Amino acid sequence: MRLQRYLAQCGVASRRKCEEIIASGRVTVNGEQIVQMGFEVDEEKDSVTVDGKTVTPVMLHTYWLMHKPRGVMTTLYDPQGRKTIVDLLPGGAPRLFPVGRLDYDTSGLLLLTDDGDLSFALMHPRHRIYKTYCARIAGKLTPEQAQRLREGLPLDGRMTAPAKVRILRSNAIYSDIEIAIREGRNRQIRRMCEAVGHEVVSLERTAMGPLTLGTLPIGAVRPLTDEELRQIKQVCGLHA
């Protein structure tokens, strides 16, 4: 098994973050520092440490859904002292990592888990998993502008992937739209709307693939149901 996958299964971090940890020289295998990607480990025989502490695979994973409020960082720690998602977790909660991120001023659905394989699969472009948002934007979004969002437009020199867009209500002051994207570029929806002439006033993620926010109160967390876990693993090609 590749080292970065082994670390993810140990609950160290997401697989991509584990690659950064390896590259920074914090990992040893049988006492030898390993910095190259793709190093193979035998999970039955090899001794693996991170920052000097032995890590072992986590057999049972935890999966929680959070309704992140605005004004909360999608990180485990913020050097500026701002509130983070950790502050919303109940006492004694296991160490979980967010799958992807929501901007500081964006609210909505956030999946937290210690399952590195699922986190990696959900974020991998090949699975083309839609993230659905409800946005309130300033001004009236025209059908022509909505079509531009659907077809894709240039951001940072690259076209955005086609999006699903529905105009829920619209007047001269504001428009409420539902938009679903498969990418995760920095502040993508806000920048897409700005590109067609509209500022985003508020933004909430309501779904990630088959997972939906439902009636979960703002700031609350709950475990995934068995059926939700089966569905999200199915769309990622993982066995439940």
Automatic annotation (TrEMBL):
Any GO BP: enzyme-directed rRNA pseudouridine synthesis
Keywords attached to this entry: Isomerase, RNA-binding
Keyword Ribosomal protein in annotation: no
Xref: Pfam families: PseudoU_synth_2, S4
Annotated SUPFAM superfamilies: Alpha-L RNA-binding motif (SSF55174), Pseudouridine synthase (SSF55120)
A single Gene Ontology CC term: cytosol
Matches recorded under InterPro entries: PsdUridine_s_RsuA/RluB/E/F_cat (IPR042092), PsdUridine_synth_cat_dom_sf (IPR020103), PsdUridine_synth_RsuA/RluA (IPR006145), PsdUridine_synth_RsuA/RluB/E/F (IPR000748), PsdUridine_synth_RsuA/RluB_CS (IPR018496), RsuA_PseudoU_synthase (IPR050343), S4_RNA-bd (IPR002942), S4_RNA-bd_sf (IPR036986)
Start and end residues of each RNA-binding S4 domain: 1-61
Transmembrane portions of the chain: none
EC id: 5.4.99.-
GO molecular function: RNA binding; rRNA pseudouridine synthase activity
Domain of life assignment: Bacteria
PANTHER family referenced in this protein's UniProt entry, alphabetically: PSEUDOURIDINE SYNTHASE FAMILY PROTEIN-RELATED, RNA-BINDING S4 DOMAIN-CONTAINING PROTEIN
Family (UniProt): Belongs to the pseudouridine synthase RsuA family.
NCBIfam families: pseudouridine synthase (TIGR00093)
The protein, known as: Pseudouridine synthase
Protein source organism: Luoshenia tenuis
Lineage, uppermost ranks: Bacteria, Bacillati, Bacillota, Clostridia, Christensenellales
